[in-house]
Automatic annotation (TrEMBL):
Modified residues (N6-(pyridoxal phosphate)lysine): K249
Cofactors required: pyridoxal 5'-phosphate
Keywords per UniProt: Aminotransferase, Pyridoxal phosphate, Transferase
Sequence similarity: Belongs to the class-V pyridoxal-phosphate-dependent aminotransferase family.
Binding residues annotated for substrate, in chain numbering: R400
GO function terms (MF aspect): alanine-glyoxylate transaminase activity; L-serine-pyruvate transaminase activity
Protein name stated in the entry: Aminotransferase, class V
Listed Pfam families: Aminotran_5
PANTHER family: ALANINE--GLYOXYLATE AMINOTRANSFERASE, AMINOTRANSFERASE CLASS V
An individual GO BP term: glycine biosynthetic process, by transamination of glyoxylate
Domain Aminotransferase class V: 73-361
Claim: Transferase is one of the keywords in the record: yes
The species this protein was found in: Burkholderia multivorans CGD2
């Protein structure tokens, strides 16, 4: 007989919540009702000790407590729960593993929230240098200007490597960057690992040279890896001090936060800084993570707990599959899609040697390709072209292809075939 029927038979009537709680206890625990008498229903034979009470909805937090906090409902994971504490520790451990980071902070919101959190924590009244390779590294300048953050900002822009229309672009030459760092002695250098507006990637040697130069003058290197896909950056090998990522591209998870990794130097220096934001207080979010790492929990503002649980699961899935394997798959997929587009006559915005495998940006003269309409008409969502903010000509017109996600990476042949079929119909 079901628990609901037992309860109704004994009491005649019960609230729906009581029946659901009873049913959840029965099925989540595999059965521990030892009596069907009214007295048994009022004892620990039916209601186990408080520490063992399961959540109301077992698909949310099977082993959690009944939700009567002021923060969440029964349909969300509570930030104080044992389950979420494990989620946070797992995320921290795995991100430290893949990026070779000293510390990890999670900032609710999106990748841009992480960028602003870093700027407001470290760059206030400091001299900053930005390597701008497109619209999304122009974002550093937008953040600086909106918050009146740095004392000075120097920008080194990408530039064409050839003359004529639809010229390929490359980042500022590394010798020029190193010379500028030595001349201006910035406190921080900001750069995009992969620039989403141009499909441009900074190679490992470029990163190392920037890091060495800024460390020589006592500064730190901040790298935006939000669009890196599964081209992981080793912070120890590259010399990066602050790395910003997010769940929705390289991690195949739902957006909802920024992931900020710190080197030992950045972890040391953050204690001497004060953020100019409450919600984006990076030091506070670092303290929150460190509370979880220490076996407890803490609260600053409400976290996207369910999204973070999903992120943890996907990071673990990727770890089990192999971080190196998904990196190789990303490289293969990007190489093949770029070759396909070149074969059809589309010119890459990113020059040879700087072409990202996860973001492909090509020129077009067709407004319906630029906007993505022609792709949408055949069932494919791409991204419209955006400006570079790198002194490009007025007729600069592009479209953008994203090659993110484990489902593409684990089936490179299929991903290429599906895109090739769509491209044929677009043309």
């Amino acid at each position: 007989m079901s628990v609901a029927r037992i309860a109704l038979r004994v009491h005649g009537r019960l609230s729906l919540e009581s029946v659901v709680v009873a049913a959840n206890r029965r099925f989540a625990r595999g059965g521990w009702i030892r009596s069907r008498t009214p007295r048994a229903l009022m004892t620990d034979s039916f209601f186990p000790p408080e520490a063992n009470v399961p959540g109301l909805l077992p698909d949310v937090d099977r082993d959690g407590l009944l939700e009567y906090s002021v923060v969440y409902t029964d349909r969300s994971i509570n930030h104080m729960s044992q389950r979420f504490q494990h989620v946070m520790r797992d995320i921290s451990d795995l991100l430290k593993k893949v990026y070779h980071a000293k510390s990890v902070a999670i900032v609710p919101g999106s990748g841009t929230f992480g960028m602003e959190a870093v700027a407001r924590q470290f760059a206030t009244n400091r001299k900053c240098l930005v390597i701008r390779n497109g619209w999304f590294s122009y974002r550093w300048s937008q953040i600086f200007e909106m918050g009146s953050i740095p004392s000075e900002s120097i920008v080194l822009k990408a530039r064409p490597v050839e003359s004529g229309r639809q010229a390929a672009y490359a980042p500022a030459p590394i010798d020029e960057v190193v010379a500028a760092i030595r001349e201006h002695k910035p406190d921080l250098v900001f750069a995009p690992h992969v620039e989403t507006a141009s499909g441009m990637l900074l190679p490992d040697a470029y990163l190392r040279a920037v890091a060495d130069a800024v460390h020589e003058v006592g500064g730190m290197f901040v790298l935006d890896c939000i669009a890196s896909g599964t081209i992981w950056v080793d912070m120890e090998a590259s010399g990066v001090d602050v790395l910003v990522s997010a769940p929705q591209k390289g991690w195949s998870a739902s957006p909802g936060c920024a992931l900020v990794m710190l080197s030992p130097l950045a972890r040391e220096r953050i204690d001497g800084t004060t953020s100019t934001s409450f919600a984006c207080d990076l030091r506070k979010w670092l303290q929150i993570m460190e509370a979880y790492e220490g076996g407890g929990f803490a609260y600053h503002a409400t976290m996207p707990t369910d999204s973070l649980a999903t992120l943890r699961d996907v990071i673990k899935e990727t770890d089990a599959y192999g971080f190196d394997k998904v990196r190789d798959e990303q490289l293969e997929l990007g190489t093949r899609i770029r070759a396909l587009l070149a074969e059809k006559g589309f010119r890459s915005v990113a020059a040879e040697g700087f072409q990202a495998p996860g973001v492909v940006v090509c020129y077009t003269d067709d407004d319906d390709i630029r906007s993505g309409k022609k792709f949408a008409d055949v069932g494919v969502q791409i991204a419209a072209g955006v400006p570079l903010q790198c002194d490009e000509p007025a007729d600069f017109k592009t479209f953008r292809i994203g090659l993110f996600g484990l489902d593409k990476l684990h089936d490179v042949d299929g991903a290429v075939a599906r895109f090739a079929d769509a491209l044929e119909r677009v043309l």
